[in-house]
Amino acid sequence: MTERTPNTPANSAPRHTSTSAKPLGVPAAVLLAAGEGSRLGGMPKSLLRLNGQTLLARQIAALRLAGIHQIVVVTGYFHALIEAELKPLHVDIVRNGQPEAGQQSSVRLGLSRLRAPFDFTFITLADQPLLNAEDFVALTAAFAQRKPMTQIRYPVVGGQRGNPVAISKETVSLIVSADPSVTCRGFIQAHPELVDPYPTENEHFVVDIDTVDDLAAFKARTGLELKHPA
To answer: Over 80: is that where the pLDDT of 117 sits?
Structure first.
């Protein structure tokens, strides 16, 4: 597959995909930026810079270009640095006071802060450097085209599950109102009948940054360098 070089926050204006399936609906997004970055030596991955812009700012720009305006960002570790980056971006911020409880605690916290109106939400990671507006537009269309009675879609690339995950507002309500021990991941695993995986060749959905090796692999793959936060 030929990579689309991300020269701008979202590359280009999105081309909306028409569909005769369900209406596209109103999307929201929960953007996870609470991690410790332990496998990168303990650093905020969302503040890695690509072409002079943080991954966090790039993804927020991409979401907005795709027509997604309710954006809840969950912070935790490095919250002071990340929230300073977010301040001029005018998004909703919720801080996970116990980020050591893991990513799923941040997911649940972010879902609990969503407010009407929205029809579905993306749960998206702040360390996916290739995601752009067209990718979110494609997933919005894919969610509208999901199988009847299903409520959850996520991309699958070459057999590998990717991100973001799209879930209906009904599913959000079920997760938020469930016992605190119920995680989003656990709910999805327990209800395969609600899931319609979205097969795609778009590798943007499976490229993320967890380790030093991932940084090197990204540069080798794209010719682009992710720079550490200042």
So the answer is: yes
Q: Identify the pLDDT of residue 17.
A: 39
For each of the domains in the chain, give its residue range(s) and CATH number, in order of start.
Answer: 27-222 (3.90.550.10)
- Cβ-contact 165, 123 below 8 angstroms: yes
- Residue 23 — pLDDT band, cuts 50, 70, 90? low
For the chain, the C-alpha Rg in angstroms (whole number) is 17
Q: Is 21 exposed, middle or buried (0-12, 13-18, 19+ CB in 10 A)?
A: middle
Relative to beta strand 160-161, strand 155-157 is: antiparallel
**Beta strands in the chain, from DSSP E residues, in sequence order:** 27-33, 49-50, 53-54, 70-75, 92-95, 120-125, 152-153, 155-157, 160-161, 165-168, 198-199
Structure tokens at 149: 């009675």
- For residues 10 and 133, the answer to whether their CB atoms sit within 8 Å is yes
What is the overall mean pLDDT for the chain?
A: 91
Confidence at residue 12, expressed as pLDDT on a 0 to 100 scale: 42
DSSP string over 66-119: TT--EEEEEEBTBHHHHHHHHGGG--EEEE-S-GGG-HHHHHHHHHHT--SS-S
pTM above 0.90, yes or no: no
Collapsed DSSP state (helix, strand, coil) of residue 49: strand
For the chain, the first-to-last Cα distance in angstroms comes to 33
